[in-house]
Amino acid sequence: MKLFLAPIQGMTIACYRNAFARHFGNIDAYYAPFIGLSDTKNISNLLLKDLLPEHSDSSINVVPQLLGNDGALFKKFALVISDLGYREINWNIGCPFPMVTGRKRGSGILPYPDMIKKFLDTACSDSSYTVSVKMRLGLKDPEEGFRVMEVLNEYPLCKVIIHARTGNQMYTGQVDLEAFKALAGSCKHEVTYNGDIFTYADYLRINSCFPAVNNYMLGRGALTDPFLPSVIKGHDIPSANKISIVRNFHDDIFNFYQSRLSGSKHLSDKMKEFWDYLHVHICTDKKLLKKIKKCHDSSQYIELVNQLFDSAEWIE
Ligand SMILES: Cc1cc2nc3c(=O)[nH]c(=O)nc-3n(C[C@H](O)[C@H](O)[C@H](O)COP(=O)(O)O)c2cc1C
């Protein structure tokens, strides 16, 4: 069984992936947040900075992701990225945001299988890299996914990751396990399940529905409980050790942003995103968490976070 970390824009950038691997591990591949395809003459290092070898720990397996609907641009970017040492390049046809879908990108391309075919004709025409796809069940209706899968089955994709929601559902509502099962069953490629695995019980329940699926991608569940991959893989550690591990993880990320971001407000605001996920399993004085949420100064932030870690307990 393989576990993948889902891309979460703004969170799972190189420093996060490196620190995650160092402190928690048990992830077979880290999918990087998408880079939007753009018709630039030169693909600059700034555009690819999250993937540059000097930022990304070479001992972990990272899969870059591209978002767009132009196969020639995908190929152009994929060739430059494969020169950096990456083999698998993921195509995002799942992003649900109206600014993206309105331009027939992300899940907005799912109602147009002919566009997907045209895209893949070019995107899959070079053997320097292999293409994987991260999709949703459809944009509006799971019926759309079946027509897309007929097209995907014609190409030599290395993997198809399915988030078991439609684009219109965004990130809310139930995952549709029945529709996932039918879509996964119609796929000739290796399938990865994605969506709403927040606990070990969620994993067991979903895993029991799909005995033929061996790959799982965790997003928000791994960000709220970074020990979840180790629990799923059977390598859990005692609860009493968890806070100090999370503290070291936090400090690595804080140190990274401190060296990159200018301005105390900027730094404390960035770190607050981290707590949006991490507070869930931390038992502490709720007032401390509220103060962290309200704080706009990095020295005050560090003081509060130290108080929190000194007194907190990890709740399973
Ligand atoms: C804030 C946020 C940012 C995301 N960014 C990306 C992204 O860059 N690329 C992508 O394929 N999916 C992105 N996703 C979707 C996740 O990778 C994942 O498919 C989704 O959250 C469902 O999995 P989960 O329930 O395990 O979180 C994002 C999700 C969230 C909540």
Report on this structure.
The protein has 316 residues and is an alpha/beta fold. The protein folds into two domains: 2-232, Alpha-Beta Barrel (TIM Barrel), CATH 3.20.20; 239-314. It contains 13 helices and ten strands. The chain has helices at residues 14-23, 71-83, 98-101, 113-123, 143-152, 177-185, 200-209, 220-224, 228-232, 242-260, 264-278, 286-294, 298-311; strands at 2-5, 29-36, 62-67, 88-93, 130-138, 159-166, 191-194, 215-218, 282-283, 313-314. The strands form two sheets. It has an eight-stranded parallel beta barrel with strand order 1-2-3-4-5-6-7-8. A two-stranded antiparallel ribbon has the order 9-10. Helix 1 runs antiparallel to helix 10 and helix 2 runs parallel beside helix 4 (113-123). The longest helix is centred in the last third of the chain and has 19 residues, at 242-260. The radius of gyration is 20 Å and the shape is globular. The mean pLDDT is 97. It binds flavin mononucleotide. Residues 6-9, 33-34, 65, 92, 94, 134, 163, 171, 194-197, 218-221 line the site of flavin mononucleotide (FMN).
Span between termini = 23 Å
Oligomer: single chain
Number of helices: 13
Radius of gyration, whole Å: 20 Å
> Which molecules are bound in this entry?
flavin mononucleotide
Report the average pLDDT across residues: 97
> Helical proportion?
40-55%
The CATH architecture of the largest domain would be Alpha-Beta Barrel
Number of strand elements: 10
How are helices and strands ordered from N to C? EHEEHEHHEHEHEHEHHHHEHHE
- Please indicate the percent range of residues in DSSP E strands (runs of 2 or more): 15-25%
Tell me, briefly, the overall form.
globular
Q: Outline the low-pLDDT stretches.
A: none
**Which CATH class of the largest domain applies here?**
Alpha Beta
Q: Specify the structural class.
A: alpha/beta
| Main β-sheet description | 8 strands, parallel, barrel
Strand order across the largest sheet: 1-2-3-4-5-6-7-8
The CATH topology label of the largest domain is TIM Barrel
Q: What name goes with the CATH superfamily of the largest domain?
A: Aldolase class I
Counting structural domains, the number is: 2
